[in-house]
Specification:
single chain; 190 residues; alpha+beta; two-stranded antiparallel ribbon; 54% helix
Length: 190
């Protein structure tokens, strides 16, 4: 088991032990649903209010240490609690406050990591999280998920939400990119 897998399993165990709903997102989720790329950290979204930061930090203290001196104010400002596992793996624990994030956590799928069940966001929800980013890496991740998972994707769930995000954010390029990437898949299948 790698240090990253060890930290991931310890994190999942702690969160489940304390009945904190969660989903793994970011580069590790991308390795499951898309085209793997090097990532050293773990990104996890929890269904918890930022007022619960001290309770969550206490629940994780056996295996993780908090990396900021004032976790309450840091989380209030950023919605993120930076942690480090005993073996030095960085974890960003994100407080999922938006209805979309809570729904995505409920939809999370169990994936086995080193023979342990860990809740990962669905490929559709990972696309939604990444498609709004302006980072080239996230755009490449979306295209990788499409290449690997397109036939399996729940487009009835995904496409209305992509359109909604583009409209809410006043970013028509989100829908334009999505349409272009799907067209590229169609051309490559011919």
């Amino acid at each position: 088991m790698t240090l990253q897998e060890e930290a991931l399993v310890a994190l999942a165990r702690c969160l489940e032990e304390h009945r904190i709903s969660y989903m793994i997102i970011g580069g590790i989720a991308n390795a499951v649903w898309g085209e793997p790329r090097a990532t050293l950290d773990i990104d996890v979204t929890v269904a918890a209010d930022t007022s619960e930061v001290l309770e969550i930090a206490a629940a994780l203290e056996r295996d993780f240490r908090v990396l900021v001196s004032n976790p309450e104010s840091f989380v209030q400002e950023t919605r993120v609690l930076p942690l480090e596992s005993r073996s030095g793996v960085r974890v960003d624990l994100i407080f999922g406050l938006l209805p979309f994030e809570r729904e995505a956590i409920e939809r999370a799928k169990l994936v086995h990591v080193a023979h342990e069940g860990v809740h990962f966001c669905t490929p559709e929800d990972l696309i939604l999280l990444k498609i709004i980013s302006r980072r080239d890496r996230d755009q490449a991740d979306v295209r990788g998920i499409l290449r690997r998972r397109f036939p399996e994707l729940d487009l009835e769930y995904l496409e209305p939400r992509i359109e909604e995000l583009g409209n809410l954010l006043s970013r028509p390029e989100i829908l334009e990119s999505w349409s272009k990437w799907k067209a590229e898949l169609d051309r490559s299948a011919e």
